[in-house]
Design goal:
The complex is a heterodimer of chains A (308) and B (544).
Chain A: H1 2-30, H2 34-39, H3 46-55, H4 62-74, H5 87-122, H6 127-141, H7 144-158, H8 172-202, H9 205-212, H10 217-246, H11 249-254, H12 260-269, H13 273-301
Helix pairs in contact in A: 1-13, 5-6, 5-8, 5-10, 6-8, 7-8, 8-10, 9-10, 10-13, 12-13
Chain B: H1 5-23, E1 37-42, H2 56-65, E2 70-72, E3 78-80, E4 83-88, E5 93-98, H3 112-123, E6 169-173, E7 176-180, H4 188-191, E8 205-207, E9 210-211, E10 225-227, E11 236-241, E12 254-259, H5 263-271, E13 277-278, H6 289-293, E14 297-309, H7 320-328, H8 332-338, E15 344-346, H9 371-380, E16 386-392, H10 398-412, E17 415-421, H11 424-432, E18 439-444, H12 452-459, H13 473-484, H14 488-505, E19 508-520, E20 524-525, E21 541-542
Parallel strand pairs in B: 1-12, 16-17, 16-18
Antiparallel strand pairs in B: 2-3, 4-5, 5-7, 6-7, 8-9, 10-11, 11-12, 13-19, 14-18, 14-19, 15-19, 20-21
Classes of the chains: A mainly alpha (308), B alpha+beta (544).
Chain lengths: 308, 544
Amino acid sequence: MFRYIVRRLLQMILTFFGATFIVYALVFANQDDPLQALAGERPITASVRQALTERYHLDEPFLKQYWYYMKGLLSGDFGTSLTGRKISDMMTQAWPVTIKLALIAMVIAATVAVTAGVISGIRRGSMFDNTTLVVTLVILSLPIVVLAPLAQLIFGIKLGWFPPTAGAHPDFHALLLPALVLGSLVIATELRVTRSSVAENLRSDYVRTARAKGLSRKRVIGVHVLRNSLIPVVTLIGVDIGGLMSGAIVTEGVFNIPGVGFNLFRGIRTEDGPLVVGFVSILVIVFLVVNLLVDLLYAALDPRIRYE
Amino acid sequence: MLGNRPWKMAVGATAIALLAAGCSGGGSEDTDATSKSIVIGIGEPQHLIPSNTTETSGAAVLASLFYPLIDFDEKSQPVEVGAESVTSDDNKVWTVKLKPGFTFSNGEPVVSDNFIDAWNYGAYGPNAQGASYFYERIEGYADLQSVDPDGEDGPKKAPEPKAKTLTGLKKVDDSTFTVTLSTPFAGWKSVMGYTAFLPLPKAAFSAPGTIAEGFEDAMVGNGPFKMKGKWEHDSQIVVEKVADFKGTAPKIDGVTWKIYQDQKAEYADLTAGNVDVQTTIPIESLAAAPGDLGDRFQKSPSSSFAFVGFPTFQKEFAKKEVRQALSMAVNRQEMTDQIFLGSQTPATSFVSPAVAGYRENTCGDNCKYDPAKAKQLYDANGGPKKIQVTYNADGGHKAWVDAMCNQINKSLGIECTGVGEPKFADLLTKVEKKEPVGLIRLGWVMDYPLMENYLGPLYGTGGSSNYYGYSNPAFDNLVKEGSAAPTTDAAIAKWQAAEDILADDMPVIPLRFGQNVFGHSEKVKNVHVDIFTKVDLYKIEINS
């Protein structure tokens, strides 16, 4: 177990450097005039352009720029954005609110999906099953660009149940609506995976054995079926956590949450290499750690799986 | 057995996460309804150092923190505010006298040096201040710049500029200083109304010519409001009233500049009453706004000007008759009504109505929609059968460019297509390489309310925004003569003569003048949004 974790951690370092290199290269390829992108349509005077180009090494070749960046990164310096703000400051502001949002969204989604999925799986073809299938179909087909403003209009403005926007320091209540919207992205798939997994396991031999042993229905479903059915769902949830953090661009925009998605959007729009790469580096780490946790959870769910 | 341990860990981690999510946060930022402080929405300012502030969000915040030398009245004429007087005998040497008794919010008195130091800092090339070109007219500006000897891509670094201070700025005493321009300019007083000409306190500098670390996040100004706490990036900037302020006192106690990334989110907060003033209502919400806001939905003139330019390097547009015909083929009124829902007005002049000297319809018949005459003129002069209009796709221009092309197609029976470039910079790159981009979509927002601020940058030879390369010596001379004229009236006469040349030459097709389309909550009244899209903080009141 220990050796396994160490091995995985070592692999992570390689993955991390590979990923940041690729992302840096992609941003560099997309970059043609970040100074103009920042200034919008205003003309930039020659001397300003010259001074900023030198300050941010914009005229240097790719590998040299990457070297400057990596040198800073390894000494714990994420660099500065083109507006002169420290990227580490921007991160300490953006990450907490996005993590909160993603966690609330994930907990809501997982709770609803697993509960409803299990019930649907047990009572296949029932009224409940058919209703959830239709509802998830509707949610799946609604893109978030429609869902988010719609939820804001109905629950935020017309009904007034939630504040229409959350802002930079939202409380739990203000985050609930954006989290619901964000969670609905993954709820449908998680629910359907749980349902089919439960339905399949219900037919398996060990369940029949358990029933034949005279175990109570509660114990058969709660322990034997659920535990086995959760393996694919946990994988999905693990991947979703990363997705929820990086994929909140639309939700964060609609509900005015200056989190990771917003900063990524700003970085891409203004061709701000260090800003994008800084946030993506952390995202890469989040993905890697979550994946490791998911893999470790397999062992807990299925005793047959062992890591050496 | 590792059977149970990971389970507990997972459950524990989830519990901690939920707890963290639920309990932390909650910095209460809601101002209660009874307070006399208001909330105004802005975007995240790029900078707050005055000489580096070139966009409206930063300028809005600075307007609350600073008391400028010069402001503008309803007719866009410059009036002294923080200055006792700004005078000149020859339009070359300007004497600025400061009103006595003013202090910065940290207690420092406002003296001449505060202006001189701030402007020197702004003009010094290596400081890379976005608004540095405003100091261009001051004597000695060139010595503060340096040119890279082998161009941007070369290995050599630019040498240090010759001087660190402008020779044109001279202190007379603590409340008087002179500004010497390199050439006389009658409109200089108006130029000084821009944010780049605000003072900075001694506390701003850690050493001469170096801004102290962290000063920008906790700006200290000489205005009616001071910053409460720090600039909370991407969140808000809170300012509160300065006690016993010497100048005009505002009627509100403070402003929370709430930062939005998306104007649609700001509009949602406006309708819910969480924002008191939104200066720009996004086009997506325009249809609903009159119903949502009633008479709290308002319009006022702004200085923005939208047009398309003819690239001079494309021979097919060389004949002015072809350019005139294309202009006549466009139905401006239909465009502003159908696509902009009346939020913009048709433009038939080459400068904005926001400036003194504007005359209606200087473009005359050339901007009048007349498809029959347009077709006849176009065909007679052999206009190209195929044209394209290039725009930047990230600015929401597709709808109207396509509509304009349709109008041209219908009027002239040719094939006009809109071509989107991803970004404005991409468009400029193509123009610089002289690729056949066709008509170029452009826009302009003025820096100071003078005709010259449109004529020079947009149509002057080598103008900063003259990407299409229009050049007419007669026009350049008239603009120059106007700038050197002894009085503003004489200047305007010259500039108007210059504008008349444009009406015949048609280097661009004027299309639309912008308006501020703004809304406010029920909490406030007397809301005025000026030509710079700034809320007038001295007029706005709380509804009692």
